[in-house]
Specification:
This protein is mostly helical. It contains 26 helices and no strands.
């Protein structure tokens, strides 16, 4: 229910500060009329708020809603008071559909945003009016909504709020101000519910921020209406993940990814609602990030211990990066960065171990070769005439100085078949080249029957790896060229422009003015023809002015939206050019690496 449009005071044709006798008199009149099926209208129905249904049931329902004093105050906060000539003048303008004139009258009474005994009714009335017209022109106006809540907040928290209460229910009755604040907040939530987080509506963060001037208890009360469920869901997901990780650390990568997926939407909602500077958001985001990171650590350690063949390093790194995406505080991010750096250092462990072993074999061979050759040169100097060195034997001694069977066994232990896949994913081209040179040396020294046993060392093709990377990056480049950035934003802005062009602005006021014209054009007893023509001329001018104002507003919003679209297209072109240049650098760098690898 909208507490402005369906306000019981409006249904009964009363102001929020109408006396009890007036209420009873109006109630008797309404019951008499509605029981016979007659349509009842009052001067202050304000048709621009929408139609009013008055039947015996609705009238009785409205009367019952304001039987208790606290309810009278509550609904008076969402309707108009008539507390003097200024209010009366403004209300009479509203009666004629002149919303801006009424607004001007009430705004003149507000100076320095101070609520006084003289202007509290104006502040309350202006707030009610702004709240009642937030959905004019078919969309929700967050600016009017925030202004309305701020005004009502100033009244509710002012020293003269008791004067408001006394005006509505008399001086002898007191009410609980804290209860009034919470009930006011609850009513606002009901009013905005159909428009919350909808297109052309109100964001949850905007709703919560509208209560910034209210006490912290009320801000928290409003916030908790939206944040309790996602906060509880994230906490539960973290606890479930922690338990499963403890039971099966080998599968912790799966649990960490599930936590990220299950908590992501709620974290985004809390971030948009609270903001990144909110301590509650930082704590829950860091808690989720730390659990995902712990999944990465436990998964890596367990799979490393059992020497699993499941790309555990790459999966652990992916989890750590997901954790970094969620973390907020510098402490959490530093811990994640430290673990990512450790994983980076261990990323090339397989190829570094392979190079170290192969290099030690080569070094041992070269050392033995140097020693044998040195001995041969010594013997060569003592040869007699006709004696010579059997260099075939020398080569055989050198070759046999290494136990190649033991070398093969050690290689199969340190560089098993499954390590080649990890080595092939190394992005350090220099290390891959070094590995290739050492493998070629090994193969040049081995006999055929031994070479077969370690042929898998040669399965890695540097050129093929770079070729694939180059192909992937070239595809990314073409994708950037085909799909400009901000395409969805531009499409949305163009859709909004079409909506603006199809909207009749101030339609409610124009309809109200036309309705008034129909009344003027009708027959009125004792009205002269001259007076009738004068009234028609004046009303036609009002209608013409409203139509001009409507066209001007449409033109203003059209120009503004076209400028926004132009700016988005310019931004898109600039960003696309930047992305193309960056991606082209990556492609060019890979082409250089490809040429180097072929040498």
């Amino acid at each position: 229910m909208n507490a402005v449009i369906n306000n019981p005071y409006r249904t009964l044709g009363l102001f929020g500060n109408s006396r009890e006798k007036e209420l009873q008199r109006q109630l008797s009149k309404l019951k008499a009329y509605t029981s016979t099926g007659k349509e009842v209208c009052f001067d202050y129905d304000f048709p621009f708020f929408g139609n009013i249904v008055r039947n015996p049931e609705r009238v009785q329902e409205a009367a019952s809603k304001i039987e208790q004093s606290k309810n009278k105050v509550h609904f008076a906060l969402f309707w108009f008071l008539n507390s003097g000539h200024l209010d009366e003048a403004a209300l009479n303008n509203l009666k004629e559909g002149h919303i801006e004139k009424a607004t001007e009258i009430w705004e003149k009474t507000i100076k320095d945003d101070v609520v006084t005994a003289k202007n509290f009714s104006s502040i309350s009335n202006l707030s009610t009016l702004q709240l009642g017209i937030v959905t004019f022109n078919g969309s929700f106006d967050p600016g009017k909504f925030t202004y309305s809540i701020e005004l009502k907040g100033k009244l509710l928290l002012s020293d003269v709020f008791n004067s408001f209460v006394s005006t509505v229910i008399g001086e002898s009755i007191t009410i609980n101000n804290d209860a009034v604040l919470k009930e006011f907040a609850d009513e606002i939530l009901q009013i905005v519910k159909p428009y919350l987080n909808k297109s052309n509506g109100l964001k949850t963060s905007q709703l919560i921020n509208a209560f910034n001037s209210f006490p912290n208890e009320i801000r928290q009360y409003v916030s908790n209406k939206f944040t309790d469920r996602p906060l509880s869901n994230i906490e539960n997901q973290i606890e479930k993940t922690k338990q499963k990780r403890g039971e099966s650390p080998r599968n912790a990568e799966q649990y960490g990814e599930e936590l990220y997926k299950n908590a992501k939407e709620d974290l985004v909602f809390l971030k948009n609602t609270w903001g990144t500077n909110n301590i509650q958001y930082q704590m829950i985001a860091d808690k989720a990030a730390n659990e995902i990171l712990q999944c990465s650590i436990d998964f890596f350690n367990k799979n490393q211990d059992i020497d699993a063949d499941n790309n555990y390093h790459e999966k652990a790194m992916k989890l750590a990066k997901l954790a970094n995406e969620i973390a907020v505080s510098s402490r959490a991010k530093d811990r994640i960065k430290e673990n990512i750096n450790t994983l980076e250092e261990m990323k090339d462990r397989e190829i570094l171990q392979a190079i170290a072993l192969l290099q030690s074999v080569k070094d041992a061979y070269e050392t033995n070769k140097a020693q044998v050759n040195a001995q041969v040169r010594v013997q060569e100097r003592s040869l007699r005439f006709g004696q010579f060195i059997d260099w075939g034997k020398v080569e055989e001694v050198i070759e046999n100085s290494i136990n190649w069977n033991n070398v093969i066994d050690l290689i199969k232990q340190v560089i098993p078949q499954r390590a080649i896949d990890k080595i092939s994913k190394c992005k350090n081209v220099g290390k891959i080249k070094e590995y290739r040179i050492l493998v070629n040396f090994l193969m040049s020294r081995l006999k055929s029957f031994l070479k077969v046993k370690v042929e898998y060392l040669n399965q890695l093709t540097v050129i093929e790896k770079i070729e694939q990377d180059l192909k992937n990056e070239e595809q990314k480049l073409e994708s950037i060229k085909r799909t400009p950035p901000f395409s969805s934003e531009i499409k949305s802005a163009e859709s909004q422009l079409a909506n603006i062009k199809n909207t009749i602005f101030y339609s409610s006021e124009i309809n109200n003015a036309n309705y008034r014209m129909n009344e003027i054009q009708g027959f009125h007893l004792f009205r002269s023809r001259t007076e009738r023509e004068r009234q028609i001329t004046e009303q036609q001018k009002i209608i013409s002015d409203l139509q001009k104002k409507s066209n001007a507003e449409k033109q203003r919003q059209t120009v503004e939206q076209e400028q926004k679209i132009y700016a988005l297209r310019q931004k898109s072109a600039t960003e696309q050019q930047r992305q193309i240049l960056n991606q082209q650098k990556i492609v060019d760098n890979l082409k250089i690496q490809y040429q180097d690898a072929k040498k």
